[in-house]
């Protein structure tokens, strides 16, 4: 179940672009299907080396930007390895969502508390009394 992927960094031209730095995007490709993510950084097109997918130059700012792009590559590699260990199907979209943290379902306190109250209602008579549920409902009503 080893799915190969590739990562490409490139400069994307904004709609109303005249001159100046362009934003750097990361494209993840799995089974020929691409998915794009903004890196949140930009680069002057004259300094960009499209063959190396990196900034050319030896100045400190070039080194920092290249290290940042390298870090993004390592994060995607870690996520890919994690998917393989979990036995999850690897897609470009799933890598993107895990990278952005959008695949994690968030639990809200009141929703969890409502679920708890439903379970408590089912347990009345089996070791729990109605007053116990009444206390939980009062707490829930105060915060709703």
Fold and architecture overview:
The radius of gyration is 24 Å and the shape is elongated. The strands form two sheets. Strands 1-2-3 form a three-stranded antiparallel β-sheet, with helices on one face. The longest helix has 27 residues, at 60-86. Strand 4 (48-49) and strand 5 form a beta hairpin. The protein has 144 residues and is α+β, with helices and mostly antiparallel strands. The chain contains four helices and five strands.
Summarize the structure.
The protein has helices spanning 60-86, 92-100, 109-122, 130-143, and strands spanning 5-11, 22-30, 33-43, 48-49, 54-55.
Shape: elongated
Low-confidence stretches: none
What is the structural class? alpha+beta
Number of helices: 4
Q: What's the helix-strand series?
A: EEEEEHHHH
Give a short account of the largest sheet. 3 strands, antiparallel
Q: In angstroms, what is the radius of gyration? A: 24 Å
- The overall pLDDT, averaged over residues, is 83
How are the strands of the largest sheet arranged? 1-2-3
Number of strands: 5
The fraction of residues assigned to DSSP E strands is 15-25%
| Residue share in helix | 40-55%
Query: What distance lies between the first and last C-alpha atoms, to the nearest angstrom?
Result: 47 Å
